[in-house]
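In this section we walk through a basic example: taking a raw amino acid sequence and producing a predicted 3D structure, encoded as discrete structure tokens. The instruction is simple. Fold the sequence below.
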Amino acid sequence: MSNVRFDATEVRDEGIFQSAKYGKSEKITRDYVETAIGHVLKKIDQSLNQFTDQFPAPSSNNQVYKAIDNVEWTTSFWTGMLWLAYEVTNDEKYRRVAEKQVQSFKERIENRVSVNHHDVGFLYTLSCVSAFKLTGNSDAKNAALEAADLLITRYFEKAGILQAWGDLKDPKQRGRMIIDCNMNLPLLYWASEVTGDQKYREIASSHVKQAAKYIVREDASTFHTFYMDPDTGVPLKGDTHQGFADDSCWARGQAWGMYGFPLSYKYINDWDLMELSKKISNYFLNRLPEDHVCYWDLIFTEGEEERDSSAAAIAACGMLEMVKCLPLSDPYRDYYQNAAIKIIKSLHQNYTTEVEGEANGILKHAVYYKGGNMGVDESCIWGDYYYFESLVRLLKDWKLYW
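The resulting token sequence is shown next.
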């Protein structure tokens, strides 16, 4: 597993086309950030009773999230928002609801409710790893470790990857990895840290290097999906499930890469991951419209196609994480700091639900799955979470849940 190698020099660096756009120092005041967080807390409070025993659906319908049981891959984003709210306010009401939801996640993993996919990383990092880090909750720790044990059953050693979803024995599903999985890997790194067992770390390291090698294209764009032969390890093909076309670049996928590769760097200290992160970030920035919020696929840079505010929020978090990792001498470091702040300001000013009183989401104009006509130009709960996380990152020296 540890022998997987990739070479970041095989991926081109476009640089930043409009250096003046992101080269000028972009400031943001504490008052501005606190005002933006105030809106987030207002919307959380508006829904706290409704989403105590249930959770928001993945995306809204006419700007309103319906209440669902703990069955989707997205439910932890709400719980993660509660933990962020608890951190910035010290208000026990958020902790009480979050801890009640930790029990729901404990029961979910014990009963294997809709966990046959790699997104147990999302589910248990934001609900239970966060709870354990903040409060020492032993139920949360044990549930997250059980989730990590389940996640590594999706590992194909010859291919060096974790299969995203689908039956591990189904030949039509086997060997599929997707760029999203970068964000599921921190659960495994954490499991190695708390148990001392390096198998979790080795699997995560193997997967992220295979993603770097095969999902990232030569021009620094990304496939959404890539297939490996799980029995031989032979790379097969890349395509898309949620992007515009197999050879386009799905914006949220690019953002998952911008955040996920630096997170793995933090744990395995492979500098090639940071070099790769810079190249895919530059590709992303070069395709942003004037207001800095991407279209749902980066093949679009103007026109009437929908934006994806959720991808923009993820990308902002990724760049803020990169800034922490890059040396002061790195020529791109200030660009990423400035770009992240510009994105966050644009989201706050143009994409939030401040004037929509009935809306229970936070960010408007997100896209869940355009091809399936799901959550198009709506709120998406992960967008709300990452927007909140980006603000908390600007407010304080935030300790990662990831």
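Looking at the output, two observations stand out. The first helix runs from residue 19 to 23. The mean pLDDT is 97. In the next section we compare this with other chains.
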